[in-house]
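request received
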Amino acid sequence: MTASRLATLIDDYLAGSLAEPDRADLVVELLARREAREEFWRAASTHAMLSEWGKAHWGRAAATEGDAASGGLVGRLIRATQRLGAGRGWAAAVAVCLGIFLAAIAGVGVGRAVRDRRVAGRPDSPSPVVARVTAVNDAVWTGNRQFREGDSVGSGPLRLASGVAQLTFASGARVALNGAVDVEIVNAERMFLRSGRITPYVPPEAVGFTVVSPSGEVVDLGTEFSVGVDASGLTDVYVIDGKVDVAGGHARTQPPVRMTQGYGARLVSPAAATPHLTQRPLVIDHFDGPVAAELRWINLTPALPAVVRGGSLVVPIQEHGDGVDPAVRILLDHDFTPLVGARSVISFKATLPNIGTAGVGRWVALVVDGSAGPDDPPGLPLAARPEAAAAVMVSPRWHSNVRIMGRPLPRGRIFARTEEAVGPYQVVIRIDDTPENQQSAGGATLDVMVNGVEIATAERIFLGTSPRLGFQTFFRSGERPGTPGDSRAGLALIDDFSVSVERPGAGT
Amino acid sequence: MPPRDPVTAVQSLFVEHGAQIRGFVAALMPDPALVDDVVQETFLAISAKAAEYDPARSFPAWAYGFARRKVLENSRRARRGGQPLPDEVLSVLAVMDEAEAELSLAASRLRFVDACIAELTPQVRRIVEYCYRKSLKPAEAARLMGWTPGSVHVALSRARAAIRRCLERKLAAEPGWETPPATLPNPAP
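response:
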C-alpha cells in the first residue's frame, strides 16, 4: 500500500467516513506493518490534539460561565466517582487536580514536564509478562534481545529469524515458532501472526486462544493447529488435532467455519469472509534433530519387503486386482520409549507412486484425522475429506493406546494427500506410560522402515526397547480399508522422517 | 505533597495525563459523542484497580489498557463515525510505544495549537473549527461551507498536516528542546 493511500485511509477513519472495503484494507495494513501503525499514531495524535483543543475552548467557555466542575470532563469524573460510592475523598482529590488538568490543557507546567520526559527518553515501563520462552533450538531472534529458555515475554512484536522456539503463554497455550516468523504478542489469549508459520497447542484451560492473521482469525477450541502467513498475507490453517473456528476477515460479518483435525483452510483476504476449505497440503515445518538415529523395520509381507534403495526407504504397495480399491500398508515401527509422558512431534514426508487411483502422483502423508466422529461438523464437502485419496493409518492395535494430545485416538488415521507439493507434516502424539500401552506395544508385529533419517538428538530422545509405535499406510476406497486382496506391487518412498520431543514437564 | 493512597494517586495521575488518555480514546473511538463516556469509564476502572498500579510503570501505558477495553465495550453503542477498528487492531495499537510517545508529544504541543490554527487560511480555519470545536462531521461542515464533503475531507487532512508541521517548528524553537537531526542538509543560501 502506498503512503498516500494509507494516509487517506487513516484520515477517513479519523473523520468517521471509512467504509468497507477500505476499512478492511486499513485493518490489514495496521496489522501487518509497524510503520503503518506509527503513521496511524502520528495522524491520530494530531487529530486527538485538535479534539482536545476544541474541548479546551469549550472548557474555557464553560469555566467563564462558572460551570467547569459541573459540565466539564473533570466534573463528570467527580460525579462518576461519587456514583461509584467512593466518598468525598476521591471527589476532593479530583477537584484538587482540576487545576492541574486545566493547566495541562492550557499548556502550562505539565505539558513541559511531559515533553521533558519525552526528551529524556521513555520511563522504564516493562510490559507485564504474557508468556515465557519454554524451549529454543538454534533460535536467532531479530532485534536487540536474544530470548533464551525461561525468559519472559511481554506484549509486543517478536521476530524469530531462524531456528525453533516455543512460547508458553500465561493462559496455558503453547506456541511453536518456526523461524523465520514475525508475530505480535497481544496478550495471553491472543497473538497476531504477521508472517511465517506457528503451531499453537491449546490445552482445555486455554480454549479460545486466538491467532489473528492479516486475512482472518483462528479461534482454538482446544486443539493443535498450524497457521502460516505468506508474504502476500494469505493465510493457511491446518488442524492437526481437535477443532478450531476459522473466520475470514475481521469484520465478523459471517459466522466462523468450524474445522476439525485433518482439514485445512485458506483465508484469501479479509474481503472473503468465508474460509476456503482446501485439500492442498499445508506444509508444516517439522523439528529435525541434528543427529541421526537408527530406525528399524520389519517386513510383514515377505513377498513385498521394504528395502532401502537410493537412500530412501522403499515400501511395497499392494493394490487390489481390480485397480479400484488399492491398498498399501506401510507400517513404521520405532522405539518411542523416550517419548513416554512427553509431547512429541513426529513428521515425515512420503512419496507414493501413482497406482490405482487416477490423478495421484506424489503423496504427502501425515494428517491425523479423527473425522466422522460425533463432534465433526456436518456438511463438510466430501472433497475436503482426505480419505478420498489415501491414508496413512495408525495401527488399529494402537487405537486404544495412542493418544493425541492426551486423548485416546479411537479412529486415528493419518491421511495422505494427493497434491503436487510434497512437504513434511507433523503428527503430535502423546504416549502414555500405561501398562496397556506397554503390553500392546511390546507385542506389536509391525513392519518398520525408514532409512538414514534423523531422529532428534540423543539428548532429547533416548532410545529403548519398548513400547513401539506403528503407522500403517494404505490406499483406501472400500469398506474395509487396507484389506489385502489380489494385488500388484508398487513402491512408496519415505525419504524423510524425524522425531522430536519436548522435555517432559517443559512448558507445563 | 502528592497523595499517598493508591486511589488518589492514580486519580491524580489520570488527571495529569488526562489529555493524553483522552487523546488515546479520541483516536480509537470513532464516535466523538462517546469519547467522554469512555474516558469517564476508564477513570472509574483505574480507580477500582488502583492498587494494581505499579508506580515504576508508565501511567499512560497502564491506563491505555483500561481505555482500550472501554473503547471496545462502547464501540457497539457507536452511532456515528462508522465501525471502530477491530479488537486485534486496537490491541496492537494500544501496546505501541509510538502511541504514548506521540500522544505525550501532542499533549505538550497543545499550547501552540491556537497559534498554528491562526496560520491557516480563513476557510480552512473555519473547517477545523467546525469539525473540532463544534464537533461537526465533515459532511455537516461541507453543507455549512457550501463545499463538497470530499473537499472538506481533503482540507482537513491538509490542515492536520500543516498544524503538525507548525507545531514541530514551534516546539523546536523552544529553548531546551532537542531537535532531531536533520535528514537533509540545509539548502545553500
